[in-house]
Amino acid sequence: MTDGADRIDDVEVNLDIHLAHSARMYDYYLGGTTNFPADREAAGRALAVFPYARSAARANRAFMHRTTHLLAKAGIRQFLDIGTGIPTSPNLHEVAQSAAPDAKVVYADNDPIVLLHAQALMRGTEQGVTAYVQADVREPAGLLDSARAILDFTRPIALSMNALLHFVPFEAQGITEGLKAQLPSGSALVMSHFTQDFAPEETGRLIQVYTAAGTPVVACSRDEFARFFTGWDLMEPGVVATPRWHPAPAGEAEHITDAGASCYGAVAIRP
Fold this sequence. Notes:
Elements: E1 6-8, H1 22-29, H2 37-49, H3 53-73, E2 78-82, H4 92-99, E3 104-109, H5 112-121, E4 129-134, H6 140-148, E5 158-162, H7 172-181, E6 188-194, H8 200-212, H9 222-226, E7 233-234, E8 240-241, H10 258-261, E9 263-269
Parallel strand pairs: 1-4, 2-3, 2-5, 3-4, 5-6
Antiparallel strand pairs: 6-9, 7-9, 8-9
Helix pairs in contact: 1-2, 2-8, 3-4
């Protein structure tokens, strides 16, 4: 692939707009327009029981911005973002390449509507590479094969799985360990994950809404989340609610409480 190239795999796009999808509901929470009545109806039910849904989405988005910028400034030049979601500027590649114009970014998602928007919105710098692959984290071997066509797995890679693994019940730990094993020393694992620790009643009702909409979701405790990073070195401040991970200076960012985020976030480096 040449520098600055954008890649879209040749995938037939089949949308079932009559079923709510978590990526399109997330787009709705962020104020986007790439969603359909089924998504808006499900999101409305979620907001009725969990009024923090919009602030949680914004907090997660801001966490992605801060982690990406910090890692790019620290010298990482390769990023693999799984569970990309519908593009919302600034996207991960825009943040990474603003700090390091030669950064390579590979996005992976299994929602066909993300594929429709990827080519138009995921444009990288001339010095770097921005690519998209249609892939499912539950089938990591194929995902990694596609990523290896673009990224050098002998050099550090930042693997981001933000607000993703709570949608993969019972498989998340095994998937994470399998992906970690493929990354070289100096790589980073960036994750955020839904939790019931801060607003147990509201988040319990939210789980019921998502499950009824056909998207089972599982929360984790702080200790359960910390296990994803076993064997790697957690960066300061460790496992915290997403707004507390290297927060922007007071007055420069929206104040969101731990309950308003209801997600843990952390970054760890492979020794």
